Amino acid sequence: MAKKKKNGVKIEFLSQVRLQKKAFEEKLNLIMDSVKDENILVLEEALSAEEKAQLIEKSMEECDEDFPGIEFSGFDSRENLLDRVIAGLTGRERKDGLLIVGSSDIMEKVKEDKDAISMIAKLE
Amino acid sequence: MFGKLKKFLTGLFGKKDQIKLGIYGPPNTGKTTLANRISKEFTGEELGSVSEVPHETREVKKKEKVSMQSDGKEISMNLLDMPGISTKVDYKEFVEHGIDEEEAKVRSKEATKGVVEAIKWLDKVDAVMVVFDSAEDPYTQVNVTILGNLEAKDIPIILVANKIDLDDSEPESIKDAFPQYNFAKISAKENENMGELYKKIIECV
């Protein structure tokens, strides 16, 4: 089925407070639903390396002729030793950081660094 | 921590026959060219076909019992050439390379399965070479994800800055982006600096 043409790109921002209540599986489904709906999603938290691998796996599993996959960027949590000790003792992982994710159809990375990202949202 | 524990227990209760050395990286960084170079050097046979078209390697290719020697030392390993890890696979990209549309769609499906397979193998390898195209920007989420997963599992890593024969190559930018890892700059295609890489592999593994 041909895609419905959109006039612009919707950007959704989700706060850390909102995300804290969700299990990772829920977040993953939320991300995939949103990007497949051609939105750009900005999460006020970082994903761990294992979670990023799961995000790539999930996007590959859902790839088809209409959905070529995702583009994502972000700033990772800069936790220090004390943060890790506290996380280990409390069982709560710190997720400070940022994740920007969208369908590769509409989002294109221009340049990414540890502390700067530039992206293009493509309007067709 | 679990990686260290696993390593400790393996050391106590059993010795691995063959080290599994994985070759990881994004598509088109020269992983199969590198695998072929190593395999040809130490077994006399190549491992897989190479192509300008991305995702040429769509399933894990293995060369068993590769005996690598350098500076009087020797290791025996299984060499694993992984499909390139990517966040997107668009069949139209294959069409642009002159591949028929139906065939492009099949390739695309195979490529997505290959990426998933390569990610699953991150749990099973003993050491990894992460291969970069020295002419491309090294700081990407794919590279950060591969390295982060290997580090979390305490798997030894060698960063391989490949394609240093290209005029616009900047191998040092890879070292600058990820300074904490073992590093070697080579051209697998032109057989440049391979001896240095073999030494690093033996030291690291």
Could you explain how this protein is built, in words?
The complex is a heterodimer of chains A (124) and B (205). With 124 residues, chain A is α+β, with helices and mostly antiparallel strands. Chain A has one domain (10-121). Helix content of chain A is 34%, strand content 27%. A four-stranded mixed sheet of chain A has the order 1-2-4-3. Chain A has a two-stranded antiparallel sheet with strand order 5-6. The two termini of chain A are 17 Å apart. Chain B is an alpha/beta fold and 205 residues long. Chain B has one domain: Rossmann fold (3-Layer(aba) Sandwich), CATH 3.40.50. Chain B is 40% helix and 20% strand. Chain B is built from seven helices and six strands. Chain B has helices at residues 2-13, 31-43, 91-96, 101-121, 141-152, 171-177, 194-204, and strands at residues 19-24, 61-70, 73-81, 127-133, 157-162, 182-185. Chain B is globular, with a radius of gyration of 17 Å. The interface between A and B is medium-sized, with 26 and 29 residues.
Quick rundown:
With 124 residues, chain A is α+β, with helices and mostly antiparallel strands.
Write the layout of secondary structure elements.
The complex is a heterodimer of chains A (124) and B (205).
Chain A: E1 10-14, H1 16-20, H2 24-36, E2 39-43, H3 49-62, E3 70-75, H4 81-90, E4 98-103, E5 107-112, E6 117-121
Parallel strand pairs in A: 1-2
Antiparallel strand pairs in A: 2-4, 3-4, 5-6
Chain B: H1 2-13, E1 19-24, H2 31-43, E2 61-70, E3 73-81, H3 91-96, H4 101-121, E4 127-133, H5 141-152, E5 157-162, H6 171-177, E6 182-185, H7 194-204
Parallel strand pairs in B: 1-3, 1-4, 4-5, 5-6
Antiparallel strand pairs in B: 2-3
